[in-house]
Amino acid sequence: MQNKEINQEKSVNEKNLEVFNRYFPGCLSIENDNQLTLDVGRLKALLGDFSEIKEEGYGLDFVGKKIALNQAFKKNHKILKPLNESTSKHILIKGDNLDALKILKQSYSEKIKMIYIDPPYNTKNENFIYGDDFSQSNEEVLKQLDYSKEKLDYIKNLFGLKSHSGWLSFMYPRLLLARDLLKQDGVIFISIDDNEAAQLKLLCDEIFGERNFVACAVWHKKDNASFLGKDIIDLLEYVLIYKKSASFKGTRDCLIDTEKHRELITKSSKIGERIFKKDCCLIENGDFTGLLEKGLYGSKQFCMEILEDVEIICGIPKNDIKIKGRFCWTQSSLDNETLKGGRIEIKSIKGMKPIFYKNFDNNIPFRPMRNLLSKKIENDVATYNDAANEIKEIFDNLPLFEYSKPSKLIKKFIKNVTDINSNDIILDFFAGSGTTAHAVLESNKSDYQKLSEGGGVI
Length: 458
Description:
single chain, Rossmann fold, 3 domains, disordered C terminus
């Protein structure tokens, strides 16, 4: 990613004005005190007779909206300072995510395929603090926003009370910038609960457009819940899904056809040697690292022999695997299918029963994703309890993060909206425990996708 001098970058406002003047010349002019004036009559003439100036209508309004909008359009004067040079395609940014989003716009405008965020829920128990620097009292900002110093102080005090207005003012500029980062066929997933779900839906309708609403998925977050101190037992959260435009192809869940994989060995086939190409093979879902020693594996019915030692790193062989067994596929058939994008998976080294998976191309029928996300229905969904166990396993039984989302859930979203070998970029600007990064790396291992994660406060 290029680290340009931000001082030389044009603000969002300046870029929007350039676009406006390109398509609607003469509608904007600079009047007294260098203030822009819109010629409404000329604009209506250019748009045609159907145009009408909207005086009233349905929409979302909240205290501080004008200043939150200013936060998104305000010029940024910060740059990224790399800690070390790396060839990794993954990017981890530590800092204020509002600043990070503005910096990312320089290199990643309309390049992000998928955004997942798990923002603060604005609950009574949550240590959410509205931390944006909107408190400048200089004459220029106050004049631009038409705010008095007293009104600004009122807004600051209000934002410290866990109000809807404070939370919306925090989210508004970030989602505006996020929309600019999405590709035309991009999509955003936002986790939320009852505290701000209604407000977030209205906010996203305004930013992304109501016609670009995809779904409000319901996530079954707990297997069991406490019965103490509640009128209703809370088992659910939500994931709001919005697309950037009509170019989004939709979600693709599991395959409809049952021929998505085929066995490579049968009891009746003749014994022969085969070579599994290293780039087309995955061992134990990417969880195995070590030496696959030569020798006999499997059962009496399906005995396999590894002919040479092979080093495995995160499930990927460093060399081709030479193997002997009762294969029902010839070497040429196997090579032809893997060239088309198919892959070979060995789910268990001990069991050693390789399976061939067909290429997941666009000709294979998928079904859309369900809007009910429950592990009781699908095995690629998990709960908060699963996430807690996952964190403890990674960090040697230390409960470092509360309420982290399970990586399985994020992997499901990635699988449903990205294509294999598409070099899609994934962004999470509320990275927290790094679950999205974890899910991306796991997706890379299992699907051979080349995904990256940008971030904000990580």
